[in-house]
Here is the input.
Amino acid sequence: MGRVIPLEDARDSSQSLKPLLDIVAEDMEAINRIILDKAVSDVEMIPELAHHLIDSGGKRLRPMLALAAAKLCKYQGNGHIRTASAVEFMHTATLLHDDVVDESGTRRGKKTARMIWGNQASVLVGDFLLGQAFKMFVDVGSMTVLRIMSNAAATIAEGEVMQLAAAKNTATTEDAYLEIINAKTAALFASAAESGAALAQRPAEEQAALRSYGKNLGLAFQLVDDALDYSGDSQRLGKSIGDDFREGKITLPLILSFRRGTEDERQFWNRTIAEGDIQDGDLERAIALMKRHKAIEATFERARSYGGIAHDALAIFPASREKDALQQVIAFCIGRTN
Amino acid sequence: MGRVIPLEDARDSSQSLKPLLDIVAEDMEAINRIILDKAVSDVEMIPELAHHLIDSGGKRLRPMLALAAAKLCKYQGNGHIRTASAVEFMHTATLLHDDVVDESGTRRGKKTARMIWGNQASVLVGDFLLGQAFKMFVDVGSMTVLRIMSNAAATIAEGEVMQLAAAKNTATTEDAYLEIINAKTAALFASAAESGAALAQRPAEEQAALRSYGKNLGLAFQLVDDALDYSGDSQRLGKSIGDDFREGKITLPLILSFRRGTEDERQFWNRTIAEGDIQDGDLERAIALMKRHKAIEATFERARSYGGIAHDALAIFPASREKDALQQVIAFCIGRTN
Here is the structure.
């Protein structure tokens, strides 16, 4: 199942992002301008709310993948800029709706939009950004990119509904969890990376390779996210440890602890997660149980395994600065602490 | 400003829908199959919730417009079926999000989806249906239709945000109100009608004519809707009289009553609408004030005026069964009581 990215690779993870940042720096400036430009509306609330999210310190990983993939495929046009901007809009729209669904109070250490402007505005501005994203894809003019992105939009929403249906269900299997994160997270990573090959009209195998790279990178990214929710540094993470626990969200650390646990422990998970009856000290006990069953460790291990698949997926491309940068990003995603 | 559709035309309004129903009957069966087919998902909640809305007795006016416009333009392919289905999906997605934003309890006399499955599912299934709509537009393969529909998606959302921003604001002008209903309602009517000419690759003036027809029909439709909320037969309407009043929604009957009213009456509107302090008998007083200032009458009058513009917009097309059916629909929209 592909090589496992060794832990050492992931040590100084911020360094692993640098080659990608260097490659896309110029294009990212153009993207920032487009994003501000397309979030404009006579309806005051739209740019206000959009800027709140856009300026809120996201890494813009997904648009960077789209740009680097286009460069890897030696794409000569300028459709990748608009495509990457639209990918970020899709992601932003998802975040807005996610926060409403999860009733989240903070994201990346800042108040969520719904806490400032309300759920209603968050739903509607999310819809607006999704509409703007599709307008931009239409402007790019590639039916292939439109196909990839409309599939992604439906799949992401399907994944979010799956996650909602699985909420509080401690019997969720690892497979079901994988299906959820495949849809809600990996689909957009996959589509962003694939768009580069689609724009450059590269052969099907290169398109598939970039899609596979993006998908497995997305899986690794989400697994790390879910592990950090029980183990991260809340100061650096910008969100509180245990958010998933308090929301009864089913993620791999919990699934593994539940399956590897004793009958008594399962009763604990059912009380806290399924029934939502959380008392003082429960989060600490949850983390202790995860440590005992090496559930966090195993989640990181799974992430490294998917990272390995992502790495191998790019093997068919000849050596290049872009290929190297895309492979180094894997270590960043696995080693990140925020 | 075009001829005003006389009131007599609108008397037996259900008869005015029949020519359109006859023209699209066969295609509508195909659309019903596609709609059920595309609402399928392994995620149980999606088809359940989608069917609830799809089966809930909507008139499917928008897809019928798309079909009839394609036939008017002698379109020979089969892309109009998928286009019309996707238009209905867009509309359904909007309804789901609308009900969340408005906190509505009933729609067409049935419990809203959010009352049964919750706000969270309504937001996410709305997103899924919008994604499916765009997949269908991509399948149709017309970049022009994709452009029309992505513009519509962004405009509708913008209109909804405008409406949210204007909520409870009794100082809203008739112009601002028109801008809102232009975006939130008329844009999809316009796009549905325009898609027919776009698919058939008819000259720009025919595309513009159908767009103008759809837009003005949509304005008339929404104006009547807003008038019925204060004057309709709640049994037949499937919603309670006064919903807009209780939600503090700003519509033309209220705008006109506020502007035409005395200082004392404006205080009444400010208390009930702006401050949301509604007491027993207030709805009755609101309706009485609207009657005194002929605000409902004027709203219907405006609707007839837009209906006249819609009628004239089709003048450039030679006489045909489709043209006749589309013009008769105007009387249906104006004369309807539900």
In short: Residues 113-140 of chain A form the longest helix (28 residues). Confidence is low (pLDDT under 50) at residues 7-11 of chain A. The beta strands of chain A are 106-107, 110-111. DSSP finds 15 helices and two strands in chain A.
